[in-house]
Amino acid sequence: MTNKKGYVGAIRQVALKWPDFAAMERHGNRTDRSGRQRSIRDEAPLVWNTLDLKSAREVHMSNVAQQGQTAALHVLCQFPTELVKADEHGQYKMLIHAVQFVNKFHGGRAVFAARIDRDEAGRHVVDVFAMPTYERTYKDGRTAMRASVSKFTKAEAKRRFGRDDRRAQGSALQDAWFEYLRDELGIDVQRPERKKTTTKDRLEPEVYGLIQDREKIAADARKAARLVKGAERLAARSGHLFSRSANRLQKEIQDFVFDEER
After folding, report:
1. I need a labelling partner for 125 at 20 to 30 A (CA). Which of 54, 102, 209, 240 fits?
2. By residue range, what is the domain housing residue 71?
């Protein structure tokens, strides 16, 4: 059975490295070229907590230990375009439910910021930024707060499908989102078709374009970071060569002076 357009919800999450994370903050503040290009109306974003992602993350991660280099999970929550209105009340409803779902799926304390970019073509997508946390109890009874981007996704995939590979993780997240829309919002949402193709077949065209744009922002940020590192290495190498040349010249001058004195 083919899904009826506008009656399907979809969700996608990506682990962001620090350059990607910084790029997403610039995009939210419309200080990047892509953000300005995608803007088609003069309407401010609807924000949960703040647009200052770095500061929000710092507060969220206070006294929380983390392994790895992931800055955050970026979760794109798409609501069915035909089943949820995109007026002020409807968008506020989408924002709150997206935050509530991501927190619920990722252990209860995960989200530190979220927004709907209302100046873009797609008006049914919420950008959620999260770092899932949990309390770990050690053998001696000590407890400590830890962070993990994959702990809860893997656990849900294992529970639903008996395995926790990437495909199972994606399916578990999608199924949980479908059930949330159906049970918590009480809407007649359709379950996305299971396909071995891209997400494009399960999303509205403008939403798929939004995802492509977000991925391009992240890719550009990674490219810029690599260029900066390359420039730093080149500068360091140039400085090293200059230092060697200067030392060699100084030695030659000293040898010349010594010869003259003799």
Report:
1. 54
2. 10-226
Instruction: Please give the tally of structural domains in the chain.
Output: 1
Angle between helix 18-28 and 53-60 (nearest 10): 120
Q: CA torsion 202→205→210→211, rounded to 10°?
A: 30
Is residue 101 in some structural domain?
yes
Read off the CATH number of the domain in which 30 is found.
Answer: 3.30.930.30
In which region does residue 54 sit, left (phi positive, over 0), alpha (psi from -120 to 50) or beta (all else)? alpha
Contact 218, 16 (CB under 8 A): yes
- Domain membership of residue 247 (yes or no) is no
In the numeric block, which tokens belong to residue 90? 């409807």
Q: Which residues contact 129 (CB under 8 A, 6 or more apart)?
A: 24, 53, 56, 57, 72, 73, 74, 75, 111, 112, 113, 114
Structure tokens at 173: 């997240």
Task: Assess if residue 53 is contained within a domain.
Answer: yes
Max Cα separation, the chain? 99
**Cβ distance 38 to 207 under 8 Å?**
no
What pTM does this model have? 0.78
Q: pLDDT tens-digit profile of 153-165?
A: 999 999 999 999 9
